[in-house]
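Lecture notes, unit on protein representations.

Consider one protein chain, 187 amino acids long.
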Amino acid sequence: MSNWQVAGIITAMSGQPFDIVDSASGSFYFGANSGVILSRPSWAPGATPVTAMSNVPAGYFFNPFPFVRPVVNAGQTIPSSNGTAVAGASGTDIGNVGRNVLRGPRQINIDFSVIKRFVLSETKSVEFRAEFFNLFNQVNFNTPISNLNAASIDPVTGRIINPGDFGRITATSNNPRLIQFVAKVNF
């Protein structure tokens, strides 16, 4: 059993925080259809991060319905102005959803290697190694689509009509299992 080595790396992480954004809101500040990702949606009345992670529809990572576009109709006070500005025309405000309100899926990965060394002489050896990246072929999901603009929104109320891909995970964040074999001559 001499000249054998095993090695491994285990990576386990909780989900990373991510922002919910709305690239179609904030027209009072950024202009209509500016596509600026700095703006955020608002919480629907009574909604919180807890409600966004409960009653999640099948196929979604979070419940998209607690989020609304902050629509302000003509003649209404613009909420982000602290009551000092009135909308001359309909538009969208910057919402009240904070940064990093939700966490993405957890990430787990195990890498493993087995090495056998054959000594040929005092200064020469041959090494054979098998390396397994993502040993158990664990699927790690990427963060979900978090731009409210991916949903169909009622232009008058700002509420979601059809969530579309908003809240869905559409990609993975790691590779499938990779195995490589290596032969190395040391001299």
